[in-house]
Amino acid sequence: MPNSFGKLFTITTWGESHGAAVGVVIDGCPPGLPVSAEEIQAELDRRRPGQSDIVTPRKEADRVEILAGLFEGRTMGTPISLLVHNSDQRPGAYDEMREKFRPSHADYTYQAKYGVRDHRGGGRSSARETIGRVAAGAIAKKILALAGGVETRAFVTQVHDIMAPVAALEKFPTLAEVDATAVRCPHPATAAAMIERIKAVRSEGDSVGGVIECRVRGVPPGLGEPVFDRLEADLAKAMLSLPATKGFEIGSGFAGTRLKGSEHNDAFENRDGRVRTVTNRSGGVQGGISNGEELVFRVAFKPTATILQPQQTVDIHGAETELAARGRHDPCVLPRAVPIIEAMTALVLVDHWLRQSAQNRTFKF
Amino acid sequence: MPNSFGKLFTITTWGESHGAAVGVVIDGCPPGLPVSAEEIQAELDRRRPGQSDIVTPRKEADRVEILAGLFEGRTMGTPISLLVHNSDQRPGAYDEMREKFRPSHADYTYQAKYGVRDHRGGGRSSARETIGRVAAGAIAKKILALAGGVETRAFVTQVHDIMAPVAALEKFPTLAEVDATAVRCPHPATAAAMIERIKAVRSEGDSVGGVIECRVRGVPPGLGEPVFDRLEADLAKAMLSLPATKGFEIGSGFAGTRLKGSEHNDAFENRDGRVRTVTNRSGGVQGGISNGEELVFRVAFKPTATILQPQQTVDIHGAETELAARGRHDPCVLPRAVPIIEAMTALVLVDHWLRQSAQNRTFKF
Amino acid sequence: MPNSFGKLFTITTWGESHGAAVGVVIDGCPPGLPVSAEEIQAELDRRRPGQSDIVTPRKEADRVEILAGLFEGRTMGTPISLLVHNSDQRPGAYDEMREKFRPSHADYTYQAKYGVRDHRGGGRSSARETIGRVAAGAIAKKILALAGGVETRAFVTQVHDIMAPVAALEKFPTLAEVDATAVRCPHPATAAAMIERIKAVRSEGDSVGGVIECRVRGVPPGLGEPVFDRLEADLAKAMLSLPATKGFEIGSGFAGTRLKGSEHNDAFENRDGRVRTVTNRSGGVQGGISNGEELVFRVAFKPTATILQPQQTVDIHGAETELAARGRHDPCVLPRAVPIIEAMTALVLVDHWLRQSAQNRTFKF
Amino acid sequence: MPNSFGKLFTITTWGESHGAAVGVVIDGCPPGLPVSAEEIQAELDRRRPGQSDIVTPRKEADRVEILAGLFEGRTMGTPISLLVHNSDQRPGAYDEMREKFRPSHADYTYQAKYGVRDHRGGGRSSARETIGRVAAGAIAKKILALAGGVETRAFVTQVHDIMAPVAALEKFPTLAEVDATAVRCPHPATAAAMIERIKAVRSEGDSVGGVIECRVRGVPPGLGEPVFDRLEADLAKAMLSLPATKGFEIGSGFAGTRLKGSEHNDAFENRDGRVRTVTNRSGGVQGGISNGEELVFRVAFKPTATILQPQQTVDIHGAETELAARGRHDPCVLPRAVPIIEAMTALVLVDHWLRQSAQNRTFKF
User: Fold this and answer.
1) pLDDT at residue C89, as a whole number
2) For D177-206, what is each residue's pLDDT tens digit?
3) pLDDT interval class at D89 (50, 70, 90)
4) Contact in structure between D290 and D217 (CB atoms under 8 Å)
5) Is the bond into A227 cis (omega within 30 degrees of 0)?
């Protein structure tokens, strides 16, 4: 089931970017949860096209419809079906892509794998698929909040070569701080520079990538299922399953490889009657299981593959040709990727919470 | 099934480091494959303790026994059961760990999750668990080789702050080049410096981490199952499911975030009648599906958590205390991790090959 | 994923009987398959309410909408999303069920399990859920047909105590013969008696059950995955996952328990150059794997739980009370269950065909 | 993973009847459960060859070895690995089967599917594979017992055409009553007749089948996961995954098809403050979910395929030939199948208990 994610809290997304609709089915949501369309819509609005002047100007209202799984405002333990109709379709804009493979897109590989593809806007490989993930993630985030104030916060720390200063990111940022700027970097000065850079590359018909950091506080110790379904392993999979991602690191990550063990180990202490670590180079996970500290991980995004410059390519007949890209796109995907990363994180956490609960709390001997 | 990995070529590992044995069951291996114990043993010998003077001196022969799944030297399509008995056990050496949590190990989180644990040598969280992965990976590697010369090659590119020069790693290294030195870096001068560093930190009772790169050549286009089971997503999960890993990147990875789209995109060309990319910043995967170029990814390992220096910690009663570590351990896990990374890579590829074949070649319309 | 079925050809159904819609997502459908809404509709029409004078008179057009997964009339290997809006809703008709548990329905158990339920028409436990199964099954049946003329034929052999004579069922009935009567028994005289009986019990406000037999011809040898995913095990699960089913038997079934081994064994012979069995008491499966003979199995359905007679029951507060059932229902579910059983059978077969192909045809050694 | 069963409490069996050993890995067992080898052995002894004069005289001690997953007598939440070495091997006795397909065995279908097979004693298709199921089931039964006195009791109700009188089976039989006779029918007079029949057919070189009933008391309401993983659906799959089974029915089963709804429905009443049914034609399951009444189901076994009479067959080259069977076998598998059915039932129940607990008790809103 390549279009499903999660073992007990499972989402299945469907839909092509220029088909009738995109959607998601959520199976395994606990019963009794109050859910409103507004709560889901609020998250969708954070990933919506046209939300600011540094994202794609496509006009998609992305209005969510709840088709099943709720009764009198509460979940019933039955599958929840959510749908968003596609509206701003200009299929003619994609005629060139019917025959030509866009560099660093999925056109060639979908053709090679399936022998057939919807060439319009990337079809199934479009980031539009993540609408279902964000809608489902809104429900997962609500569960986490009600389960005891677990908060998931992603934010942009790097765009191109502009990085937020380390000191500026030490405290857990508020949602308002993150959403204060269109680029979703909670450090205002850096955000301003990032926005300027994005506008500059857009004016060149070019694009940029960057890094998003995600933190979660309030995670109880015990989430994660060794040896294969370690918490960081499932987070890594979740993040690398997103379009345009090229890397994942948790805690000290790649930089930690330059420390010695004596510098890197997180000493334990007893703080307020709980076992805590003095530092958090582990990033909240040890041996694949959450240790109760803040989860901290980062995701690398490549520059948007769509650029408004002519590029060398090959067509479906194997002939070398040139692609004169045009159309509407994001010069930098990171601002809109922030809610997507939060959604995937929440989905992983709820799934592991259910798994942990099943194995370790069902029977008492 | 947290101890299983793979959808169609599935391995299930079992065993604690100081129990009777560790092992693996492989379900879904195609029938008719010739397999010998010697082929499996050859891979196990590459991860064996005591193989050189920079790894742990523990004496474990790690002899594999084949208990089921083969008949007259060939697989039958039935589960393959492989087992290695544990031999060099000094359980008394671990008495201190019964009560004290080792910093940056899994002692605390296992205790928090399960309420009970085998404290001897990490029990289930020990890297000894990877014996089953390597044994199963030997079979997966053989399938890949017979399927058309697909070759998986991992090697150490960084230890602590010593990095192999980029130019030295441009060509695909041979197995002999990798295994020529105890540290498994194919650049001899760098390898010598790495070995010296490892010996130096060991003499201080300290440890170091580093980076392993893995490349695969001969991968056909079409492997990978969007949207969630993207090839890089499953590789990321496989790598982050290994002890001591903190990061994963594919192709341009984190460094690629500093390029513009016009610099980063891989132009297509027609080379020898096949669609090929001029550059390979994608790392062999586009849209979650292999494009026929070399797979290239890197994995970050933290420094070994076990060090021979006193450390501040807490015991199972919550009391703060000090841990006076001793015993035998690897001052740097990377040399022995190389065959493990190759094994996990081969397991992911065989699994995806089977999945791709099922969906796209079974029926022709 | 309790609302998903199948490992490689996976369906996920969603929807309550009196919600906005019911639907299904199909993941794993091979690419390139031509599919039309008409083909799916034809199967839905066979399970539609109001299709004859012996089924429920509810008016549901059950028009299928294809939302994703098709491009220019062909599947793309991406998820197929199908939806049917609910139209003939009389929620007020169910006010009594909000508080009272209907005997032998799922009202009490859903309340006990989930603590909340949509009481209108059974909600998720309604047979209306099977719309998604039948829609997905239409696609599976088309795959089987194109794969080489595999034909799935279910038909009613018993209603209450009226049974078709054994001799009348010896040959594989045509679709026309099955659908010739409203009761879908291919033996006209028996069908007439069954219809008369159904009308009689309906006039008493009562209901009846019966037996459906299903046969499949053209199945290649080799489908079925021992030891747990035996073909008959997955068929049994598929059938017992349907509302109102109480039994499953394959080949000689329960009657075969009265034979001796020497009477029961199916001797092998070489017929037309193929290994064949002289008799087919095995029902087309040996050791959990299809042997190329006709698949033959039977499913027992209990009498419809909804009856128009007062019944003793308990309400959600635990008070004993009486239920005065009314409303529209099927006095006998079997005629409409015939296409559902064919659908589930086709889903099992396509799934196993893909699995068999993956393991046994991908690599040749 | 065709050799795995269960979603959260998962067993994976491995081994051929004449290989080195057979075994099982249990993943998902809750931590802290006290388990001893003796408890597992007690169940294995109930399925052991040579236990009485009506079963196969093969001499297999079937001694279980615990290789992993226990520490100081308790489970740890890590995989439990259990193994039984094969001892009484007479591979020469099977030389004829290398080339000739035994009628109604799995020889032909394994050859057709895999192209290779271990012909000795059926290899993987041997009922010897169920050793792993029984060993794992012993642990599942212990969990059920500790969870609140849930008791699983299977017993033989029919051998050939000899049936226990209905009145004799009304009460829940004790283990002692079941095991009082070699045939495991708790009605002594019937048991004596069954034993006589089994001996008679054995003396003719023939075999017989029959029916086993299984009951479970103490099941809480709420187990079962609609719409596909209904409790009866998973029970049906479990039972049809056993060698030699041809049918499954729950509650009123096939006989219930002859009742009217007004005769068949189970009225609700309030008994001792709980919602109970007056009758139990549902067999303890409504809408796929346990209702707290006794689970009651029956399984049909065909006569043993191995008989000591010459049979017509075909060899692996397609030539028609005759098979002169000899060797040691069970003239009736039912007595030894009783503990296997209990094991599978317990495995299904523990798995569903964990699933129910995860979804419905983890979060409270």
Assistant:
1) 66
2) 999 999 999 999 999 999 999 999 999 999
3) low
4) no
5) yes
Contact (CB<8Å) B357/C361: yes
For chain A, give the mean pLDDT. Answer: 95
**Nearest chain B Cα distance for residue A349, angstroms:** 15
The pLDDT of C192-212, averaged and rounded, is 97
Burial status of residue B231 (CB atoms within 10 A of its CB: 0-12, 13-18, 19 or more): buried
Give the residue among B51, C244, D186, C81 at the shortest CA–CA distance from A85: C81
Residue numbers of the domain that contains C291: 4-361
Handedness of CA C314, C315, C318, C319 (dihedral sign): negative
Tokens of C144: 């089987």
Sign of the dihedral defined by the CA atoms of residues A303, A305, A308, A310, in that order: positive
Q: Hey, what's the torsion of the CAs at A276, A280, A282, A288, to 10 degrees? A: 40
Which of B309, B305, B279 minimizes the C-alpha distance to B294? B279
Which ranges of chain C would DSSP assign to H, the alpha helix?
Answer: 37-47, 107-114, 130-146, 175-179, 188-203, 231-240, 261-264, 334-361
For residue D131, which amino acid is it? I
Best mutation site among A9, A97, A111, A113 for testing chain B: the one with the most B CBs within 10 Å? A113
**Chain D environment of C356 (Cβ under 8 Å):** 113
CB-nearest partner of C360 from B31, B34, B359: B31
- Which of D23, D75, D114 is nearest residue B77 as measured by Cβ atoms? D114
Nearest residue of chain D to residue B7 (CA atoms): D1
Q: Which alpha helices (DSSP H) does B122-266 contain, by range? A: 130-146, 175-179, 188-203, 231-240, 261-264
Cα separation, B342 vs D101, in Å, equals 42
Residue D365's pLDDT band (cuts 50, 70, 90): confident
CA distance D21 to C178: 51
Nearest CB partner across the interface for B68, out of D15, D71, D79: D15
CB atoms A1 and C4 under 8 Å: yes
pLDDT for B59: 80
Task: With a threshold of 0.85, tell me whether the complex ipTM lies above it.
Answer: yes
Q: How far is A116 from chain C (nearest CA, A)?
A: 6
CB contacts, 8 Å: A150 with chain D: none
Q: Phi/psi of residue A210, each to 5°?
A: 165, -160
Token pair listed for C261: 């081994």
Q: How confident is the model at residue D11 (pLDDT cuts 50, 70, 90)?
A: very high
What pLDDT is attached to residue C94? 81
| Residues on chain C bordering chain B, Cβ-to-Cβ distance under 8 angstroms | 7-8, 28, 30-34, 74, 77, 143, 146-147, 353-355, 357-365
CATH code for the domain in which residue B317 is found: 3.60.150.10
Residue C322: its H or E element: strand C320-324
Q: Which of chain D's residues have a Cβ under 8 Å away from the Cβ of C161? A: 258
Chain C residues with CB under 8 Å of B364 CB are 32
What Å distances lie between residue C139 and A15, C121, C134, C136, C238, CA to CA? 18, 28, 9, 5, 17
pTM of the model: 0.98
CA distance D288 to chain A (A): 13
Tell me how far apart the alpha carbons of residues D211 and D159 are, in angstroms, rounded to a whole number.
Answer: 7
- Band of residue C91 on the pLDDT scale cut at 50, 70, 90: low
Helices (DSSP H) in D159-308: which residue ranges? 175-179, 188-203, 231-240, 261-264
CA distance D2 to chain B (A): 7
- Give residues with Cβ within 8 angstroms of D56, minimum separation 6: D49, D50, D328, D329, D330
Specify the number of domains making up chain A.
1
